[in-house]
Design brief:
972 residues, alpha/beta, Growth Hormone, Chain: A, Rossmann fold, 3 domains, eight-stranded mixed sheet, 35 helices, 59% helix, 9% strand
Amino acid sequence: MFFCTGAVGMGYEFVWIRKAALVVGASQMALATVLTAFFLGLGLGSWVVGRHARNRRRSPLVTYGCFEIAIGAFAFAFPWLFGALEACYGALYPLAAGSDAALLALRFVLLVLLFLPPTFLMGGTLPLLLDGLVADDRRVASSTGMLYAINIAGAVAGVLLTCYVAIPTIGLHGTSLAGGAVNTALGVAALYVFRSAPVLHPEAPPAAETRRFGGVAFLCGLVAIGWQVAWARYFSLLDVATIYSTAMLLAVYLLGLSLGGVVLAAATRGGVPPLRVLAVAQLGVPIAALAALDWWQAFDLVHRTQAVLEGGRIVPLPTQAIDSTWAVLSEHADTVFLAPLLKVGAVVLLPVVLFGVGVPALIAAAAGRSASLRATSGWILWWNTAGAAAGAALTGYFALPVLGLHGTLGVLALGSLAIAGCAAFALRAGGVPAARGVRLALGALAVASAGWTASFVFGHEDITRHTVKYHGIGKSLGWGPIARSLGRQPMQLGDVIEGPIDTCFVFEDEHVRQLCSGCVSFASVAKTGISGQAVQGHLPALFFPGEGYPRRCLGICLGSGQSLGALLLYDIEKLDVVDVSPSVVELSLRRFAEFNHGLGSDPRVTLWLDDGRHFVQRAAAESYDVVSMEPPPPDADGVHSLYSLEFYRAVRRALTDDGVFMQWLPIYRVTPADSASILATLAEVFPETFLLFKGNQDLMTLSYKRPPRFVPDALVRRCATFARERNIAGSRFSPLCRHEIASLPGLLSMLLAAPADVRALPAPAILPAATQLLSDGTGDRGLLPRYRGNQLGQITFGTLPESDPEAFAGYFDPPLPPAVLDLMRRERAAAMQVFQAPRHEAVAAYEAAAEGGDPAALAEAALRLAAEQDRALRKAQAFDLVATALDADPEHASAAGVAIAQRIVANHFAVYAEFVRARVQDLIDRFPGSPLVAEMHEEFEKCAEPERARRGRYWLPSAPLPPLERGWATKP
């Protein structure tokens, strides 16, 4: 029962962290807030239950059952209670808006009030079980340690099941309801099983020496949770950070605490005093914690596209085969579970085991006898959890912003040394003897630990700058081993701000200045070329319906401010800018003012430090003509809510009838399934959604409440605004385009898909915020660690719709004439060469051959267009064209045609293996004697052999890739 209690309790904590992020707007802030509230409630419950709530006629195990039922009732009500909290927050929001401190206090107080009742009940369970189960005075220390370990082991299971099974399957609300059912069942079982259990101990006061351990317990909790919050910030800097990092950190942290209880039980059975175990363990914490910071690299899992070095360049293989640095369970399981577990465990586990002996050691030392366990454990747990609450708040809100991560780690190491000193002093005051050899060993360990701490604080490069350069964003900016081996000059790391929410910094060289946060690049400024973010910032104003200009604008997610600053070049009345991170705002206004048109000093601009979701939900109806948003990629922790159904509905309510909503879709960080789901969710709320691209790896959506009417003359006038942008006037949008971006043809060439084709795009899911489905991915998230960057951008782009220019004609008043549509078609085909899309000439040649009636010519043209489509990774269209060629000329076997057919099979084979197999098998069945298909069959088997070998490296069975069923005995 106590194992299951720990499992559901920690499952709740993880759900609460996810839900709290919807209120405080950032996952790290949510972690600090929930930990504070969680431990405050646990501490109060332990104290009150330990000293009071005693029933002399019934076993405390019966009271434990009642507590479990009450916790279950809260879990059943949690979805509605959280809705009430959000409503209360909305009602009080106007009173706190404009004051960062007031908003912080409001959010903190509301969350603490919400979480206090269940955590109070959870905190009372350990004192009740100790009082009801432990009767042997000789086994106080070992029993306390083992019960503590069992409960924490359950918590580990709870975190993993919640993160990997419950939330992806049944969502946050469903997980809360399932936890409520488990708690209720536990409570009912406890009432039935223990209804006749005896009362083991009469009321007993706490042992006389209990109170002097309170301060040590407080310090233990403060330091232990301080380490946890600091580690969370450290992992946020790494490019290995994922949405599972918080779950892995909690799981490993709890596992270490559980093992600490086992260590204490084993040591005390051997006759070692509990306080001595505590002193030795705490002296080892600084050495273990500071030395292990880089140990995660031993378990780093990188999925590399196999490449060969040619003339100093890394050239990917055509098949895009994957070479993982190690393989155990399966590619997916290793990526989302085993690798995060091992990496976090390498850094965290050993130090947590060492300070995991703290709570049970203090309880055992203070109680002395079993009759005092209930009151003593309640008192110690109160002080420990109060310290934990203080540690979460102080570390998250004070130490990290003031001291930085480096200084915070040094202070926490000193805290561990202080705990060891207190334990040693308590041993001496209690008259516990120690042999001379033991004293010398403790002294030597103390000197070594202090020396190690000093060498880290004063001799090591600042840990934040070091991690950012060599293990985080900096690896892709010239600090990584591959870039250094090729002699690439790295970008320089400039300003670094470690705030309460995140760590932000600037990288720069003579060509580019980048604003980054954690492990994500938020913005990039091209000093000498065209800035893509400046281009996209104009789109809402350029494509604003009618003749006039937008007046009231809202920008969500500031970044460098380039995109939002572009709106200031138009005749707008006001621009509200919302960002949750004060660090981002500070760096943007200070380091990027020359690129964002002085956004920070323009009187039309009002800056709001708030979560974009909250701000939109509380905005007045029809209050904005433009809502422009460039959030971080959706795989970033906590960002999923800005791509959700509820958020889009809130935006629609805030827009005027002719308003436009623009959103950035960075396909170099978004998989095909996730992109389709985002677009489907957007189209569910805004059926009139256009898809645009701007010549690189970024797509934009423009969404309207009703069909817009664009005036071509107005667009031409608005294009003149580009003349005021740096490096844009007179510049070509793409080297392959004949028109500059500041022209109607250049602008129209950005239109990719019309609303009808966006609505028709098949998608795996619609994305409500409650399920947080986007956090875990909608079916193909495994592509992200494989191909993040330009490779993923092309894969995703190949799955998106492309509308014929005529589909846009009806949205213009007057409609675009055929000559303009043809020019738009040519310009777009040229611009899309960045995605290797089919050239206009190849399409025209195929259409001409189809009208000509010559089967051989049609087959050759179809195969050439198939090669063009496949180059753009439009694999379905490519195979359809191969079938068209074979329908026209089944015996076609020109050397060029054979080479094209082979290349279609091999191109990105590792991504499309199952699809290619199905389509080649279909061709075999339809054209059994075709020499072209025989070559495709042979190419498939050549590519499939290494893919089967790769899959065979894993322990868990993976999807098979069976050989093709041949339609002939031998190759014709």
